Amino acid sequence: MMIRTMVVGAVLMASMSAPAMASMEIVKKARCVACHAVDKKMVGPAYREVAAKYEGQAGAASELFDKVRHGGSGTWGAIPMTPNDESRISDDNLKAAIAWILAGAKD
Ligand code: HEC
After folding, report:
1. What is the mean pLDDT of residues 74-96?
2. Among the atoms of ligand 1, which is closest to the Cα of residue 88?
3. pTM for the full model?
């Protein structure tokens, strides 16, 4: 019984590792999740597909920063991403969210 409780505790702690949790919290709080999921297409592309598309491309992080901030369309289809201003997501949080997406949106 004791051992079982400890195993469950360890699994919970592993799945709540700080950086991933923080990034997931950011995209939830900024309501990116209304249009994006980690591993399936919704209104916008899956974050893991975004990671695959830009893998190894220098400058991707700053391009995506501007794209998410100002919105746009045409890269994944005709549906536009609406702009996401600073009242929705701060510069620091947007940078962190994009770094997390480009690293494969690991949970
Ligand atoms: C209203 C729906 C919507 C919301 C809210 C939204 N997105 Fe998007 N997002 C889209 C669509 C649609 C695209 C595809 C745009 C295109 O084809 O160029 C996209 C594309 C992207 C891309 C890839 C851009 C590219 O040029 O390859 C990233 C990264 C991204 N979104 C991140 C975010 C983040 C982070 C947030 C929250 C701050 C967010 N999105 C909020 C709809 C949305």
Report:
1. 97
2. 38
3. 0.86
